[in-house]
Design brief:
The complex is a heterodimer of chains A (310) and B (248). By secondary structure, chain A is mainly α. In chain A, 72% of the residues lie in helices and 7% in strands. With 248 residues, chain B is α+β, with helices and mostly antiparallel strands. Classes of the chains: A mainly alpha (310), B alpha+beta (248).
């Protein structure tokens, strides 16, 4: 059944769009990421203009994150204090990111920047996560399935991040850490969110675990909580700057995604943390390689055309 | 079958007013509305020509040109830099037809000369886009623009797209793709005999967004802040409802 999308200005099959939303929603619920890093390339691949894909995806992630965050909140998995500080940084980041995005669109480099950002961030984060989680799985096998030794409070409070000033106590995360660290992480994720059409969970989750030393049980819920607000802001900024948010496309995607996310959360709870991370890392690497091939391979046509927006 | 019947029925109706003019053309639709179910449109152009006394009985040729509203296009050339391909050189073309279709009953150059075609803007080769930079590679960029538009289905060239039915009747199918630009179109029909332009006729065609599609588009462009806030509100509600429903 074809449906004409008013902002993307093309006709798409309704069931294809809802189905894409459902699959990505499932993964987003399972891994605690917004799913944007899968959906944005997928939308571009099926012919949606990259600018519309990025802006619309920000809108769609908001919905997926709300339902995901609610599920984690009921299990007590959201640190609201930490989340609020991440949001403060994220708001500024999203604003600047949307400005950069509008500028790149004018100069014709936005597609390149989207691809480069994907390859760079997905490649490094995916690689690190994969190596770490495989080590954890091997260690788990050696122990014969006995529960992993929890990191002690002292272990979690080591590293350069914990030498920063302006420390604050986060009860839920059982942390005493500088507010500068979550502000900077939130800021970086906000920029990526606006440029790449992602929630930024793939970078925030590892940053929270490895840099801040947050316990894994609050990481996913808190990251989803932050993503709700940052993607909501990115949606508004893109609407104002470039008018590229397609509400109809977003509604179709999210109607599939919200259902998929609920199922995903239930499956995710049953899997072990390191297995989950290894799977997520693999997925991240696959998308990264796909993007990298697009950058390096000789294009079919060296010339491309774009309509100048007046 | 039904189509050709409709064609003749329509011809019969328009034949009444043919006496005063030497060419009459009409379209199955003068206005194309883009609604939620829009997936492109097929239009039928039909016409009748009454050749002057001295040419009567001669074979004639028909060319139909459909031009969409003008737009500005950037054509970019990728260059390999280190190991990746980056957009480098750019040519900006002003007032490029957003849509261009040319159909004829036989290849254009079998109908008439290049000069003749160019003078009336018939065929890709006649599209003289305003180019800000006149460099030695202008031709390559011009071809890239036409090729890019063709790949999008927005430029079409069909040397057998016009059917001469006989008895002064002809017809052409016009296919507008789903990504057709909106605005005022111009449909021109040219009649040639022995390579000479005998007569021509121009018709307007409007492509517009209507109903819900139009509302959304206008909302997004006229009130971008409220549009963004609405989008967020919808997303928050949908996520909350789904989360609530899953709990039950």
């Amino acid at each position: 059944m074809p449906l004409y999308l008013p902002i993307a200005e093309l006709s798409m099959n309704v069931f294809l769009v809802i189905g894409m939303g459902g699959i990505v929603g499932f993964l987003s619920g399972m891994f605690g990421v917004g799913g944007g890093f899968l959906m944005t390339p997928l939308l571009i691949f099926v012919g949606v203009p990259p600018t519309v894909a990025v802006a619309t995806e920000a809108n769609q992630i908001t919905a997926a994150s709300v339902s995901g965050a609610l599920a984690h909140w009921r299990r007590g998995g959201v640190d609201f204090k930490m989340g609020s500080i991440l949001i403060a940084g994220g708001a500024v980041g999203a604003f600047i990111g949307a400005k950069i995005f509008a500028y790149l669109r004018e100069t014709g480099q936005v597609d390149l920047m989207i691809s480069l950002a994907y390859v760079l961030f997905l490649g490094s984060v995916g690689g690190l996560m994969f190596a770490e989680s495989v080590q954890a799985i091997i260690a788990d096998r050696k122990r014969g399935g006995a529960p992993a030794i929890r990191k002690t409070s002292k272990e979690r409070h080591s590293g350069w991040v914990h030498a920063l000033p302006l420390k604050m106590r986060f009860r839920k995360s059982r942390l005493y850490v500088s507010v500068l660290a979550p502000i900077v992480i939130g800021f970086a994720v906000g920029i990526l969110s606006a440029i790449m059409g992602v929630g930024g969970g793939f970078i925030m989750v590892p940053a929270m675990i490895y840099l801040l030393g947050m316990p894994t049980n609050v990481v996913i819920g808190t990251s989803l909580f932050q993503i709700i607000f940052v993607t909501a802001l990115a949606t508004v900024f893109h609407s104002v700057n470039t008018q590229t948010v397609d509400i109809l496309l977003a509604v179709l995607l999210l109607s599939g995604a919200v259902i998929g996310a609920q199922v995903g959360v239930k499956v995710g709870v049953k899997l072990k943390g390191e297995q989950l991370r290894a799977l997520l890392a693999l997925l991240v690497l696959v998308v990264c390689v796909k993007m990298a091939v697009g950058l390096v391979a000789t294009p079919d046509d060296l010339y491309s055309i774009t309509t100048v927006i007046k | 079958m039904i189509r050709s019947f409709t064609l003749y029925a329509l011809m019969l109706c328009s034949a009444i007013s043919v006496s005063a003019q030497d060419i009459v053309t009409d379209l199955s639709e003068r206005q194309v509305d883009i609604r939620y179910s829009f997936n492109g449109a097929n239009l039928l152009l039909f016409g009748t020509v009454d050749l002057p006394q001295k040419l009567r009985g001669k074979r004639y040729d028909v060319a139909v040109v459909v031009k969409g509203p003008p737009e500005d296009i950037n054509v970019r050339q990728k260059e390999k830099t280190a190991i990746i391909w980056i957009n480098r050189d750019v040519h900006i073309y002003r007032n490029v037809p957003g849509f261009y279709m040319v159909a004829s009953n036989k290849p254009l150059l079998d109908i008439t000369s290049l000069n003749m075609l160019n003078s009336e803007g018939v065929g890709y080769q006649s599209l003289a886009f305003d180019d800000k930079k006149h460099t030695e590679h202008a031709d390559i960029f011009h071809d890239a623009l036409v090729r890019g538009k063709e790949n999008l289905g927005l430029y079409l060239h069909d040397p057998s797209g016009v059917a001469i039915v006989g008895g002064g009747l002809f017809r052409a199918d016009i296919r507008l793709p789903a990504n057709v630009p909106v605005g005022a179109f111009k449909v021109s029909t040219f009649i040639y005999v022995d390579g000479k332009l005998i007569t021509k006729r121009e018709m307007p065609l409007d492509v517009e967004k209507k109903g819900f599609e139009r509302e959304v588009y206008s909302f997004a462009h006229d009130y971008p802040l409220y549009y963004g806030l609405t989008a967020v509100l919808i997303a928050l509600t949908a996520g909350w409802v789904a989360g609530f429903a899953a709990r039950k």
